[in-house]
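Our platform keeps sequence and structure together, in a single record for each protein. Such a record has a labelled line for the sequence and another for the backbone structure tokens. This encoding replaces a full spatial description with a residue-level series of whole-number codes. Below, we set out a record of this kind in full and without editing:
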Amino acid sequence: MQLPTHEYLEWLGISFRKMTFPATTEKGALSVARELGNVVTPRQVVKSLIFETSSNEIVLVLVGGDQNVISGSLKKVVGDRNVKMAPRDRVHEATGYHVGSIPPFSWQPPGFRTIIDTSLLNEPVLAVGSGTWGHEILLSPADLVRASLAQVANLTGASGGP
């Protein structure tokens, strides 16, 4: 199956691997890692989290599947003291995707902010959503940063990075 995210990566000349798992798989990084045959760890299954600022800006945050964003760190990076998870309807309106398989690239308008946690840059490979549940994309951390135009920041308190 050729998806818009695949076409976008091909257009950029970025190497990637398509992976699939049953669409009936329970949501979550641990489930995805297990279904991918332990090719990746839960940390390497990237969560695409959508936050909203007090000025209604939508921001995409990328962290490992076993990580949580430290609120204070995100507020500092975003420059807003009132950052919260965006409601599901706002996520769909802003991204065109439903919560669960939001791709980290190919849909953002110019100027959209994407932030990736520093610790993910030390992983050999990352798995990201393709926009369709059951279809995952494997690529290098550097290629994920390039494709998503992500800003690198320590959002989880985990050590690591370039």
Observations:
- The first strand starts at residue 17 and ends at 20.
- The two ends are 34 Å apart (CA to CA).
- The chain has five helices and eight strands.
